[in-house]
Structures are given as structure tokens and as C-alpha cells.
């Protein structure tokens, strides 16, 4: 891609990238002289925050960078102002691969040496992709696209495009805006007042980075990805995006106020992805509840800053919503909103339909990586009418190492869950989990009858599985008493210094402590001076659970009949 040696090519607030690295993208914040350094410099605020200063140098403030080390001064020839949409298409699909590209096609051998790879049928693939008029999907990520190009050029060259990935380009405007007034940003330099280039006398400029024009020329476009483009907060003049079903706006700086504007322009939107935008509130225009989005099936709000569940409740009236992704926010509790909660939220809003059931079609709720630490939040998930796919991993409540509960307790408490933390809950796992859970609760009820208040499904599950008060187990012929309270536990050595040994299956009292089990493992495996470290391997859990509370019993930590305990060694 060509760099520009003339500083007049650049304008303030223009998106640029480094000539040698199209993934190093930033925003022009200053154009002019820098004290002690000859010539004209471009002040850039880099997106990745990896630069030299905050926009000031040697005590002189030239611009305000987003962070202390995200700004730097660059010569014009080291920056690229971008290319047109069609130029990027030609680079990606028409240009023949260079020898350098061919050299980059390799795999690593067992001895970590490069082995060249030849793409079979390469000529046929390149020929098909080069026929741009037949192209239905295009990926132009990190190519420096900054403008749509000549009028109608896109429509004529790629008329059948349905999927378009523009991730990591230099787009910023939804629609071309002319004559935008900018605030005065002059500064003193050696006693003179300096006005940065690109503002002129009126302080007005035009930057043509128009998403709207691209969409207008692609009437069949159904999926558009604009991730990692720093989009303007002003959405004006954008046409009706009547064919867009999937819109991805991850890491674009957009907030919900702009989404409310886009909502009316997306009549058939089914998937909306808004990851990493710093969204902390669902701010609606005229109501406390989000209306519209009649076709929206999936909403992705992962990696944002939402801390209050009341903000999510504002989405509860989206009738078609089936998947809500909220991983890696700041939520510390959740609840199912009853009608009183909704009525209080909407106040006197006459447009609210009181017959609408909150989250009536929600089937998937991803809550991983939040701060949820209470059982009431877990139990509230049973109130969502159709919820069957739940993620709670990386929350305190689901991490036994932080005082949370193991997977089998989650399965037992969540009556309808079919997929938990990405793993299917089989019929067998549900049955075993519910029986283990009932026995665990029964062991805690002795001398503490109030404990039952913390377990709303206990009586239901106890009756369903026919478990008697004397700690019974369910056999093939019905309830059977476990007078001895023995559990069949498989011990499997995984410690390197112990060596390969066959698994051992032992019958152990349910009241055996973890400390006692460690001592038994030292005897069973003849460990000598090796100190064992134990883990519970659970069906459906990606990682085994560390058993580090030596005073806890097998029942306390969820070890049941036919459980597997991994025996490792202390490091």
C-alpha cells in the first residue's frame, strides 16, 4: 500500500495506519511543527495504546491522547491514508500472490523446521475468486479501506455480494458529512499562535469514509462486519438497511444511544454483535424498555461494562430474542423480572404490552466471567420460560476454588438446563447429579434443619428419585438403603514421578475427609515422601476440580458413587 509523503493528504480525526503495518491503526490528532524538530509532523493517537507519550512533548501540549502512552509524532511518509473499497477487492482477489506470500505457506515439522506447502487446485480457486461479478462473500480485513470509491463502482463490480467483512479498516463515518464545525485547538509555539493544518480559516473539513454508500450499492448484502473500525457517534443520512440480517460492530466505540438510531434502519436484523464497546447502560430514547427489533434473535454484549441486571431487564420485551451473550461484564447478580418489576420500570408507558412475558423466547444466556456469587441468582434461572443453554463459568458461584459450587450441584439446581458451560448435560449426568445433590443436602440437614431453605429443589428431587431419609441410593429395582454409606471411588494416578499405575477402585465411607483420602492414596500408590494433590474429574467439566479443603468430606465436595479422583503430586 502506498504511503503519502505530503502532510496535506491528512486531516484531523482522520483514520490512518502505519505504512509497514496495516494492523497498527490510529487517529490523526495534530498536524504541524514540533518544537526542536524540523518540518511538519503528524500527531497520531494509536488504537493499541502502544506509543511514546500522551500528546505532549518537552512540556508543550500538542493534542490529547487517550492514554499516557498512546500518542506519537510520525512523518507523513510513514503513514497511509487508506485505499478505496474496490482497490482492496483487487488486492485481495485479483492480484497474483507474490513469492513472499508463497514462502509464507508452510507447516512446522516434528523437529520444528519449516516445510513448504503447495495449495492443490490453487489456479482454479484464484480464477473463481477473480470473477468478482460472481463473488457472494468478501473478506477485506485490515486492508486500509477508507472510502467507497467512485459512484456506482461497487454496484457494477460486485453486484451479488451478500457477506462482507471490513474488520480493522479505516472507516469511521456512517454517511459523508460536510462542513462539520470543529472546536478551536490552537497553541503557542515560540511566541506565535499555531493552527494545525486541516482546519483552515473556517475550521471545517470533509472526510469521506462512508459506510452508507457501500451498503446502498450492495442491495443483497445480508451480513456486514465493521469490527475494529472506530465509528462516529453521529448516525445521519444512513439509508434503510433493508437486507442486513447480521451486523457486527465489535470494538467500534458505539453505545446504545446509537443502537437506538440504527434500530429503525435495520428492519430484518437477526444478529447484532456489540462486543468490547464499553457499554454500561441500555439508554433508550423514549421508554425504559427496549422496543422494536422484531426479528432480533441473537444479541451479543460480551466484554462490555454492564454491572446492573436492571439494565438487562430493559431487553426483556424483545419477543424474538433467543440468545443473549453477556460474558465478561461486571454483573454480580441476576433475577427473573416479574410483572411488578416491569411495571415499575416502564412507569406510565402506554406502549408497553402487559401481556408480553419477559424473555419469553430466550433459550441461551451466557454469563461467564462475571462476578455472580449467590445461589439466588442461579435458582432464578429456572424462572426463564425456555432457557436451556447457560454459561456460568468463571463466576465465583461456579468456582469451588473460590467457595462456589461444583458442576453437579449446578446441574441439580437448574431444572431445565441442557447445555451448561458449553457441555451437554446428558440424561445420565442429570440423574447422577441430582442424586448426589440430594445426598449432599441430607448430610448437611442433621442438626441444621434451616439448611433446607437454601435448597428449593431438594424435596422435589428427593421424592422424584425415591431417596429415603437413611441415605438411600437408587438401584435397578427401586430404592435401596445404603446402611454402610460406602461410595465406589476410582483413584487414577496422573503424577509424573509416580509412573504409570492401573486405576484403583475403592469403597470409601461418604464421611471420609479429603485429608484422610490423601493419606490413603499415599498407602495405595506407595508414594513414600511424595505429597499427593487430588482433583475431582466431573463429566461435562473441561477441567478437574482441585480438592484442597482437607477437612471437607467426600460428600461435601460432591464425590458420589462411581466418581473419579485424579491423584497428582504437589509441585
Automatic annotation (TrEMBL):
Primary localization: cytoplasm
Lineage: Eukaryota, Viridiplantae, Streptophyta, Embryophyta, Tracheophyta
Keyword Membrane: no
Similarity comment: family membership: Belongs to the TBCE family.
Signal peptide: none
Quaternary structure annotation from Swiss-Prot or TrEMBL: Supercomplex made of cofactors A to E. Cofactors A and D function by capturing and stabilizing tubulin in a quasi-native conformation. Cofactor E binds to the cofactor D-tubulin complex; interaction with cofactor C then causes the release of tubulin polypeptides that are committed to the native state.
Name of the protein described by the UniProt record: CAP-Gly domain-containing protein
Alphabetical UniProt keywords: Chaperone, Cytoplasm, Leucine-rich repeat, Repeat
InterPro entries, A to Z: CAP-Gly_domain, Leu-rich_rpt, Ubl_TBCE
Lineage: superkingdom: Eukaryota
Domain CAP-Gly: 32-75
Naturally occurring in which organism (per UniProt): Populus tomentosa
Location of the protein in the cell: Cytoplasm
UniProt keyword Chaperone present: yes
One GO cellular component term noted in the UniProt record for this chain: nucleus
Amino acid at each position: 500500500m502506498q504511503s503519502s509523503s505530503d502532510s496535506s493528504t491528512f486531516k484531523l480525526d482522520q483514520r490512518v495506519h502505519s505504512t509497514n503495518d496495516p494492523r497498527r491503526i490510529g487517529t490523526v490528532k495534530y498536524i504541524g511543527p514540533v518544537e526542536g524538530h524540523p518540518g511538519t509532523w503528524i500527531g497520531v493517537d494509536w488504537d493499541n495504546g502502544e506509543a511514546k507519550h500522551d500528546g505532549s512533548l518537552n512540556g508543550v501540549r500538542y493534542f490529547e491522547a487517550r492514554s499516557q502512552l498512546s500518542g506519537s509524532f510520525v512523518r507523513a511518509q510513514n503513514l497511509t491514508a487508506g485505499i478505496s473499497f474496490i482497490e482492496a477487492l483487487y488486492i485481495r482477489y485479483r492480484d497474483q500472490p507474490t513469492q513472499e506470500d508463497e514462502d509464507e505457506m508452510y507447516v512446522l515439522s516434528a523437529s520444528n523446521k519449516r516445510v513448504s506447502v503447495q495449495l492443490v487446485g490453487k489456479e482454479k480457486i484464484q480464477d473463481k475468486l477473480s470473477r468478482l461479478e460472481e463473488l457472494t462473500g468478501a473478506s477485506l480485513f485490515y486492508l486500509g479501506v477508507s472510502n467507497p470509491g467512485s459512484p456506482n463502482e461497487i454496484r457494477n463490480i460486485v453486484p451479488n455480494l451478500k457477506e462482507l467483512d471490513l474488520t480493522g479498516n479505516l472507516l469511521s463515518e456512517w454517511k459523508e458529512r460536510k462542513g462539520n464545525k470543529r472546536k478551536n485547538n490552537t497553541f503557542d509555539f515560540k511566541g506565535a499562535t499555531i493552527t494545525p493544518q486541516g482546519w483552515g480559516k473556517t475550521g471545517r473539513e470533509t472526510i469521506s469514509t462512508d459506510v452508507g454508500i457501500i451498503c446502498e450499492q450492495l442491495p443483497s448484502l445480508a451480513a456486514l462486519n465493521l469490527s475494529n473500525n472506530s465509528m462516529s457517534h453521529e448516525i445521519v443520512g444512513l439509508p434503510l438497511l433493508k437486507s442486513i440480517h447480521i451486523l457486527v460492530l465489535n470494538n467500534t466505540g458505539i453505545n446504545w444511544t446509537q443502537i437506538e438510531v440504527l434500530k429503525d434502519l435495520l428492519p430484518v436484523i437477526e444478529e447484532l454483535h456489540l462486543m468490547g464497546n464499553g457499554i454500561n447502560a441500555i439508554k433508550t430514547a423514549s421508554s425504559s424498555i427496549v422496543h422494536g427489533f422484531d426479528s432480533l434473535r441473537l444479541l451479543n454484549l460480551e466484554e462490555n461494562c454492564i454491572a446492573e441486571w436492571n439494565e438487562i431487564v430493559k431487553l426483556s420485551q424483545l419477543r424474538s430474542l433467543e440468545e443473549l451473550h453477556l460474558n465478561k461484564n461486571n454483573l454480580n447478580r441476576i433475577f427473573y423480572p416479574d410483572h411488578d418489576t416491569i411495571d415499575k420500570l416502564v412507569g406510565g408507558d402506554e406502549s408497553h404490552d402487559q401481556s408480553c412475558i419477559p424473555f419469553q423466547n430466550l433459550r441461551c444466556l451466557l454469563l461467564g466471567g462475571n462476578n455472580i456469587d449467590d445461589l439466588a441468582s442461579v435458582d432464578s434461572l429456572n424462572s426463564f420460560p425456555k432457557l436451556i443453554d447457560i454459561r456460568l463459568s468463571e463466576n465465583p458461584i461456579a468456582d469451588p476454588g473460590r467457595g462456589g459450587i461444583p458442576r453437579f450441584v449446578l446441574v441439580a439446581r437448574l431444572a431445565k438446563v441442557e447445555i451448561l458451560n458449553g457441555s451437554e448435560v446428558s440424561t445420565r449426568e442429570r440423574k447422577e447429579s441430582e442424586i448426589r445433590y440430594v445426598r449432599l443436602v441430607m448430610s448437611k440437614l442433621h442438626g441444621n434443619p434451616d439448611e433446607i431453605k437454601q435448597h428449593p429443589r431438594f424435596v422435589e428431587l428427593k421424592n422424584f428419585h425415591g431417596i429415603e431419609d437413611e441415605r438411600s441410593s437408587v438401584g435397578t429395582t427401586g430404592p435401596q438403603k445404603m446402611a454402610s454409606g460406602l461410595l465406589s471411588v476410582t483413584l487414577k494416578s496422573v503424577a509424573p514421578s509416580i509412573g504409570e499405575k492401573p486405576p484403583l477402585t475403592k469403597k470409601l465411607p461418604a464421611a471420609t475427609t479429603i485429608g484422610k483420602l490423601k493419606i490413603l492414596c499415599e498407602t495405595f500408590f506407595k508414594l513414600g515422601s511424595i505429597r499427593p494433590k487430588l482433583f475431582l474429574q466431573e463429566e461435562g467439566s473441561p477441567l478437574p476440580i482441585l480438592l484442597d479443603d482437607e477437612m471437607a468430606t467426600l460428600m461435601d465436595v460432591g464425590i458420589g458413587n462411581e466418581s473419579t479422583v485424579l491423584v497428582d503430586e504437589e509441585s
